[in-house]
Amino acid sequence: MTTSRPSISLPWDSIDTVLLDMDGTLLDLHFDNYFWAEYVPRCYAKKTGLSLTESKSKLADYSDRVRGQLEWYCLDYWSEKLALDIEALKKEVDHKILFRPQVIEFLDFLKTNKKRIILATNAHPKTLELKLMRTDFSGYFSVLSSSHEIGYPKEEIAYWEALTHKYTITPKRSLFIDDSLPVLQAANQFGIRYLLGIAKPDLQKDEVDCSPYTGIRDFSQLF
Ligand SMILES: [Mg+2]
């Protein structure tokens, strides 16, 4: 296992705004992976009488149909679709909601350097609220934006047009960090100038390939 963490130099003087994703970027994606791949299938199996394997396969099928769309991130959609109280289930395992390493130190660095910090998440507002109850990073941010209030998921160019318009963001002077390649691709196509991926969004899984973007292993690489 490699432990080297080369520093990533950015032209900070040319960056006014830092747009940050939440799940898999600020927070360990293990919570979400565990919740959707283990906990929900178990609860759904119990409710429907399906075996765990059948439950997992049915959920994977449902999930594939709306992947990358707002519904995929919508608590109300899944609560209705599965007849389960998804918000309540998330609360049952919310002790798994944790920061990724060096996040607060990075936010302190940005604050000290007077950067405007904006949370740009696909998470549903109720999920955002729940996560903030466990990891209150809101004080660092001038905007906490869920794509549900924008009307498009981050995977679409229309999202970037609407977000930058709504919050008067200059794409050429912005850095965006996200663990999703399709999302980085859309931001790139729209014209966000500086883009970084996350090499290890789920702290309990192996590193992932972020190419063509540089992947951060640890936020301390940036300051
Ligand atoms: Mg993410």
Summary?
By secondary structure, this protein is of the alpha/beta class. 42% of the residues lie in helices and 12% in strands. It has nine helices and six strands.
What is the architecture of the largest domain at the second tier of CATH? 3-Layer(aba) Sandwich
Which stretches of 5+ consecutive residues score pLDDT under 50? none
Distance between the termini: 23 Å
Question: SSE string, helix = H, strand = E?
Answer: EHHHHHEHEHHEHEE
User: What is the CATH superfamily label of the largest domain?
Assistant: HAD superfamily/HAD-like
Q: What is the helix content?
A: 40-55%
Task: Count all strands and give the number.
Answer: 6
Q: Kindly report the average pLDDT value.
A: 95
Strand order of the largest sheet: 3-2-1-4-5-6
Topology:
Blueprint: E1 17-20, H1 30-48, H2 52-66, H3 75-82, H4 86-92, H5 103-112, E2 116-121, H6 125-134, E3 143-146, H7 147-150, H8 157-166, E4 174-177, H9 181-190, E5 194-198, E6 214-216
Parallel strand pairs: 1-2, 1-4, 2-3, 4-5, 5-6
Helix pairs in contact: 1-2
The structure holds magnesium ion (MG).
Magnesium ion is lined by residues 21, 23-25, 178-180.
